Sequence to fold (588 residues):
Amino acid sequence: MSVTCTNSLPRLDAHGEVLGQRYSTYLVPTLKEAPAEAEIISHKLMIRAGLIRRLAAGIYNYLPMGLRSLRKVERIIRGEMNRFGAREVLLPAIQPAELWKESGRWDHFGPELLRVKDRHERDFIVGPTHEEVITDIIRREVRSFRDLPLNLFQIQTKFRDEIRPRFGLMRGREFIMKDAYSFDVDNAGADRAYKAMYEAYQNIFQRCGLQFAAVEAHSGPIGGSFSHEFMVLADSGEDAIAFCPNCAYAANLEKAFSEYPLTPGPQDEPLIKTHTPNCRHVPELAKFLGVPEALIIKSLLFLADSEPTLALIPGHREINLTKLKDALGGREPVLATPEEAEKIMGVPMGFVTPVGAKVRILADLGIRRLGSGVAGAGEKDYHYINAQVGRDFQVESFGDLSLVAEGDPCPKCGQNLTIKRGIEVGHVFKLGTKYSESMGATFMGADGSESPLIMGCYGIGLGRTLAATVEQSHDQDGIIWPMSLAPFQVALLPLQIQNPQVTAAAENLLDSLTSLGVEVLLDDRDERPGLKFKDADLLGLPLRVTVSEKSLAKGQVELKQRATRSVSMLPLERAAEELKTLIQAALA
RNA sequence: CGGGGUGUGGCGCAGCCAGGCUAGCGCAAUUGCUUUGGGAGCAAUGGGUCGGAGGUUCGAAUCCUCUCACCCCGACCA
Fold:
């Protein structure tokens, strides 16, 4: 068995990638039908186009074509990170448990954290993120303000044992992430680092050809820090975003705030207990009493670490669990079941009352504006009318607990907000001193005093960025790659490969294109034209060049642009230069 | 974790409820001939311990028990 050898080695680009790849010697297992496991379009197309294959739930192989695109995302990210002053490192995937115990996250991270033991029964984790490791480096190596500021990043594999991985690369358990960590001596410096990363991220997603928005994000109970998520707009996105069509306001629904319209309840009216048979739910109660739903004080019983808390919110509003969790100091609120509620409050759900309640009561700001309203009476089939805040029941604290809804007024300009869906591809986060304090990462200032470093962290999901690109850029026939992320820039299709003239013309074009640094996939398979066209559409390379007997007779080749489907003829001898020009224009 | 569903050749599926010879179909693969600008035709060929284990039975892809894997929905509003 012998293999035919080409007389020369292939041309490589500056990154060591093959410029002109022959389909016949590549691995591009395209499929006519999408495997049943794939649900969303990007997942289906990435499998059908032979970019990825699933190994286990939420764990994927990148095949050669997929890897080429991944590398391009990686290079764009690396370039912008370097440009904005971050320095690349590479940290281990496996980390000793001690570090996580020190930061407190060994106990608090939950089952997402994959814990493993080595042969000596010592505890390790597979890194879901690297704050601990990076902080450990800094506390060992950085002593003085003279070493600062510093921003370190890496591009590396993470593992998070997600409850429910789904949508292919979109929410995997193992995934590749760019994570950066900044260290500054003061808040002003930390803000500068944050702004630099914000700008870098805008460049990155722009260069990836994505339609995206930077939105205010939930920052959790980590302190008075702030954060932004970079969202790719797509209907299949797992996140909801509130947008103002008028001003620049945009926020993750978890974070979005609105002072929604509300008519205050009557003041200083007597508390009246009234019979409300079978009125368990807000709409039926409002209808029965002939009052607006907003006047009803919804009392929801939650358990946080089995401690009961009553959350009050106007009847026409919904609770934002993320905000409630923050109000509970980061403990996960779980809505009590009807049985638990009845056991704790002594009445069936729907009649639970804040009046005289022995549990902790938190209320939405709307309740304070409401002043008084209809509340459960703590007795089956009875409600109170004119239950007044402060007089009839006491609230431990008021806060923003409400979920923003479509049409709510914008907190900045008052215009009606709209809600769109998005895929979170990046997150910039001001951490403050959470890790530097718990892990003792301090520096000595010019005045000789020792202070904790101010940190920031900044992440981008590479696979998710790739999937989001496909999600946003495809048609019925397949992927439409932006020039910047396409595995190859040109698909070169000789149609009659048994015709030596056609083959020679294609080989010559391949040679001149690669000598100009153009990335070409030459479909040298002995297949019918229709099949090659279908595969080319599926793979979605931006420029398709067809070499056929027909066009060759006129000294031309045919160019078809994947995105626009526009067709034009190029003179054979100038084809390479013209393609090169097109590519440069697209990348500019 | 709760609910629903699916595991049959590389991919997509039928067969299962009413057990019965060598387990089928389409695509893909291999070979040959024809064909050649939008997933070709004909012919032949190869490939499956029917997810796994146990059980019932003369006989199990099919029925029962256990188990593993995967997918979807939910884990949210009184």
User: Anything to note?
Assistant: Residues 66-95+128-257+417-469 of chain A form a domain with the BirA Bifunctional Protein; domain 2 fold (CATH 3.30.930.10). Residues 187-207 of chain A form the longest helix (21 residues). Residues 560 and 567 of chain A are 4 Å apart (CA to CA). Residues 1-5 of chain A have pLDDT under 50 and may be disordered.
